[in-house]
Amino acid sequence: MAMGTASPPLVTILYAEDDEDIRSIVEITLQNFSDFRLIICNGGGEAIKMADKSSPDMVLLDVMMPDVDGITVLKALKQREDFQNVPIVLMTAKVQKHEIEQFKALGAIDVIVKPFDPITLADQLTAIWNQYHTGHHPG
Amino acid sequence: MKLKNNRAKLFLAAMVLVFSCLIIYGTSRYVQIMAEHSHAEFEDFREKSIRASFTIQNHIDKEIESLFEMRDVFRLKGRALTRFEFSMIAKSILSRNEGIHALEWIPRVVHEERRVYEEEALADGIANFSFKAISGSGEVTLSPEKTHYYPVYYIEPVAGNEAALGLDLASSTPRREALLKSLKTNRAIASEGVRLVQDKGEQQGVLIFLPVNNQNRVDEGSLLLGVFRIRDMLASVFSDGSHPDLNIYVYDLDDESNLYPLTSLGGEISRDALPTIEELTSGDNSLVNVSTIDIADRQWALVIKPVIPIIHKDAEYLAWLVSLLLLAVMLLMVMYFYSKIRHAYRSREAHIRYQSLSERLQAVLDNTIDGIITINHKGIIQSVNKAGLIMFGYSSDEMIGQNVKMITPEPVKMEHDSYLKNYLGGKPPKIIGTGRDVEGVRKNGVKIPLRLGVSKAKVNGEVVFIGLLHDISERKNNEKIKDEFISTVNHELRTPLTSILGSIQLIKKVGGDELNENSRKLLDISENNTHRIIKIVNDILDLQKINSGDMAFEFVDLDLVALTRKSIEECQPFATQHHVSLTFIPPSRTFNVTADKLRIEQVITNLLSNAIKFSPENTNVIVQIDLLEDNGMVLLSVEDEGPGISSEFRDKLFQPFTQAESHMTRKVSGTGLGLSISKSIIEKHSGSIGVRNCTPAGACFYFELPLAREIK
Asked: Is residue B100 classed as helix, strand or coil in its secondary structure?
């Protein structure tokens, strides 16, 4: 049963994370506590490929990924016309304010800091989605 | 080099010695030769003088002898000679004696006989014969009447001497004197030098009287008179009228009234400059020979001087003087050359020293690892050492004379002029004196990280800035590597922590009712400890960032009072949990500090949570803010009523992982890093942090921050 604010129906999130365990946790938490649909990728490269094949409503990217990192994916997506109106959220262990601001300057709508609270993850994402679609962009 | 100098000195000394000897020898030889020569000359002169005097004496004697000859004739005759007879004999004598000017016969005539003699003379053919006299003024006039006269009765030659005929010789004092003396002594007596009446010329004459002395004869008391022109008399001695090598001056020693010569032979002295004997003989250069001749009972001095002056002693002095001068000149030259050599040697030495010093300095400059660049007050590069050239990839010519902005990258370029202006304008320099990390740009455009230290100097009265540039690429690289490492470590720790925490929380949530009490408790333990690890990881990261200067602080003007209130509010739940109450004592007025909001909040929270943790239940934690106006600081203190801090821990407290021992059984949670992080943060704010024990019990943690500068 979903908790907290009702998440928007049928919102697809393109999710990229190289760590298997964290992927599981996110999957479990969003399954149990939200209606978000996840397109799970295990790396930046796959994320870009999946971006071609699908049209997600939101993107959640881990930053520190081997091979193609989250920033590269972010920049790549931001250049695509079909992703101009798709909010992109970053997940990272980098916690300093200026780092967070750097990410936002690159086009990330918000940054979720690791370790994150899985219980509130769904609410966080819902809040971000709502904020984005009411025209007020955070940041 | 010293050897060469000594050799040169020796050489010079030898030269001096040799030349001195030569000069002295030469001079002494010269002097010797001259002395010999002059001695010879002198001897020669003496001989000639003596011979000349001798000859003159002889000649005069001979001429006086002729008077005696005439007298003999008179005596032999036995009667007075006639005029004609006298004339004949006289002519003969005169022809043999060129020096005699005239021969005369002087009778003694009493006044009564005057007319007779006059008439007789007239009868003899002497026109206008009369007795004459020389007046006081020297004029020849008709003789006045006297008792007796001594007239010139006979004279030979007549021609040219007519003026003398009839002259009463007694009328002239010098003549009378000689005449009377002659009569008295019966000897040939010469008069002093006289002006002959028959003579219009300049020559002086001398009259030599000789009495005939015939007793009992009519001609008793008569005299013979030889008239001599003195100059002619002497000139007749020498074939050319004078001696070729001698100048002869004749002085009448018996005539005290006349100091001037009777005549002179030779010499080119004009009449006006005829010297006295004294003048001639008193020491001047030339030699002088004085001899006396006897002329009819008169002493004449012959002062003879050589025509060509003989080199005298003075020449000798002159020679020595010259030699002394030469010696002096030589010494001066030697001194001059010596000083020149010394100077050249010294300046060479100095040059070598300068050269070696210069080389050494240059070697030092060229071999430093760091670049050294000097600029003037306009920012123009004046010098670049080798390391500097290599650092920026330019050649010396490309850099020197250019503005230093050529090696600063774009954003700094424009500010550099203002840095200089600031410094020169006396404002606190932004860059001078401090070492700071800057960026330079190489010739190829690549930027290089540098540590720059700038100092100022005065060179030749001009301001010069000296920049020391240290390439910190390696350091930056190391820092980059370290950063990446920390980043990686951070990530590597956080990633599994995320999984662990996430799993635990999900289990608790999802599992829910299925979990028994023990399982739940165990999960709580896991969760808490995971949080603890996460905090440690965060703290370590924080501490590392602060200490390496990587943590970016955002300094803003902060209302500390408001921030403190906020922190207290946020710690309230924690305080309530521990049954501790929080009290705030604000300061007397509002103020600002320049600080990073987040970080100061972190510090306050840290102190508060420590205070709460260590406070026993039902005690108070007091937070107080005081203004220390005199220091321009603000003091924030957090007091608890806990066990306090023992002195041995007080120093270590702010080091990482130290926790004061607690008397309380309750376990104190915490990473042990909080205070070290707080310390680092406060120190980056130019403040200080510390702890003291407060009365009656408990710990008092405090920190001081500088007040924000009031904008006037």
From this structure: strand
B510, A28: Cβ pair inside 8 Å?
yes
Could you tell me the pTM of the whole model? 0.45
Q: In A, which residues are within 8 Å of B551 by CB distance? A: 96
Region of poorest pLDDT, from A19-28, B147-156, B496-505, B693-702: B693-702
Evaluated on CA atoms A75, A81, A82, A88, the torsion sign reads positive
| Closest approach of B630 to chain A, Cα-based (Å) | 35
In chain A, residues with a C-beta closer than 8 Å to the C-beta of B536 are: none
DSSP string, B578-630: TTEEEEEE--SS---EEE-HHHHHHHHHHHHHHHHHHSPTTEEEEEEEEEETT
Cβ density class A97-120: b for 16+ within 10 Å, e for less: eeebeebbeebbbbbbebbbebbb
Compute φ and ψ for B553, nearest 5 degrees: -100, 140
Q: Which residues of A touch B494 (CB under 8 A)?
A: 93, 114-115
Mean of the per-residue pLDDT values for chain B? 83
pLDDT, tens digit (0-9, with 9 covering 90-100), for B278-288: 777 776 545 78
- Alpha-carbon distance B338 to B332, whole Å? 10
CA-to-CA distance for B66 and A119, rounded, in angstroms? 184
Which residue on chain A is closest to B509 by alpha carbon?
A119
Cβ contacts (< 8 Å) between A64 and chain B: which residues?
A: 491
Round to whole Å and give the CA distance between B180 and B221: 10
If you write DSSP's letter for every residue of B24-66 in order, what string do you get? HHHHHHHHHHHHHHHHHHHHHHHHHHHHHHHHHHHHHHHHHHH
Please report which confidence band the pLDDT of residue B423 belongs to, taking 50, 70 and 90 as the band edges. low
Written as one string, the DSSP assignment of B391-403 is HHT--HHHHTTSB
Taking only the tens place, the pLDDT of each residue in B440-495 is 899 998 988 888 888 888 888 888 989 999 988 888 888 778 777 777 787 788 88
Query: Which residues from B are below 8 Å from A24, CB to CB?
Result: 499
Alpha helices, DSSP H, located in B425-559: 473-506, 517-547
Q: Provide residues of A within 8 Å CB-CB of chain B.
A: 19, 21-22, 24-26, 28-29, 32, 64, 93-98, 114-119
Residue pair B691/B649 in contact by the 8 Å Cβ criterion: no
Nearest CB neighbour to B498, from listed A32, A114, A119: A114
- Structure letter (DSSP) for residue B274: P
Least confident of A71-85, B115-129, B254-268, B673-687: B254-268
Question: How far away is chain A from the Cα of B499, in angstroms, using its nearest Cα?
Answer: 5
Å from A82 to nearest chain B CA?
31
φ, ψ of residue B404 in degrees (nearest 5): -65, -15
The string of pLDDT tens digits covering residues B648-707 is 777 778 877 666 554 433 345 566 788 888 988 998 888 899 998 776 778 899 999 988
Query: How far apart are the CA of B414 and the nearest CA of chain A, in angstroms?
Result: 27
Q: Which helix (H) or strand (E) holds A113?
A: strand A110-113
Q: Which of B487, B534, B541 sits opposite A115 (nearest CB)?
A: B534
pLDDT band at B351 (very low <50, low <70, confident <90, very high): confident
**pLDDT tens, B83-136?**
888 899 999 999 988 888 899 999 888 899 889 988 988 888 888 888 999 888
**Interfacial residues of B (vs A; Cβ cutoff 8 Å):** 487, 490-491, 494-499, 501-503, 505-506, 509-510, 534, 538, 541, 545, 551-552, 554, 598
Examine the pLDDT at B141 and tell me if it is beyond 80: yes
Residues of A in contact with B505 (CB under 8 A): 117-119
B605 confidence band (pLDDT: 50, 70, 90): very high
SS3 B331: helix
